[in-house]
Specification:
It is a single chain. The protein has about 110 residues and is mainly α. It has one domain: Up-down Bundle (Methane Monooxygenase Hydroxylase, Chain G, domain 1), CATH 1.20.58. It has 3 helices and no strands. Helix 1 runs antiparallel to helix 2, helix 1 runs parallel beside helix 3 and helix 2 packs antiparallel against helix 3. The protein is rod-shaped. The protein starts with a helix and ends in a 6-residue tail after the last helix.
């Protein structure tokens, strides 16, 4: 009886590790995808600004900022140091691009 309980506990531990590993893979994939979505938002903001539509650009920029905030919040939960570093580097690049666009969106309009 005790032997079957031990096997059950060992099996549960193995299953838990597998689930945790899958959660990490999924988290990394989500963050990578969200970074790509934010990059797309940035392109849209640039397009809207070039078309002279600062209000539309500002709305899309807010979506990019929300994506940035989500990535910033979730990235520390990545257990793999290389994956965390990769996301952090891309996130820093995203922040720099967002800051530039924010200044453009809020720049005074000159005739």
């Amino acid at each position: 009886m005790a032997s079957s309980r031990i096997k059950t506990v060992e099996g549960a531990a193995v299953n838990l590790r597998a689930v945790q590993a899958e959660m990490q893979r999924t988290r990394h994939a989500f963050l990578t995808t969200d970074l790509e979505v934010c990059a797309t938002f940035i392109k849209i903001v640039e397009t809207e600004l070039a078309a002279g539509k600062p209000d539309a650009a500002q709305r899309v920029l807010k979506s990019a900022e929300a994506g940035y905030a989500t990535i910033r919040r979730l990235s520390p939960r990545l257990e793999n140091a290389d994956e965390r570093k990769e996301i952090e580097e891309k996130l820093n690049h995203l922040r720099a691009r967002l800051d530039v666009l924010d200044r453009k969106v809020h720049a005074p309009v000159t005739p």
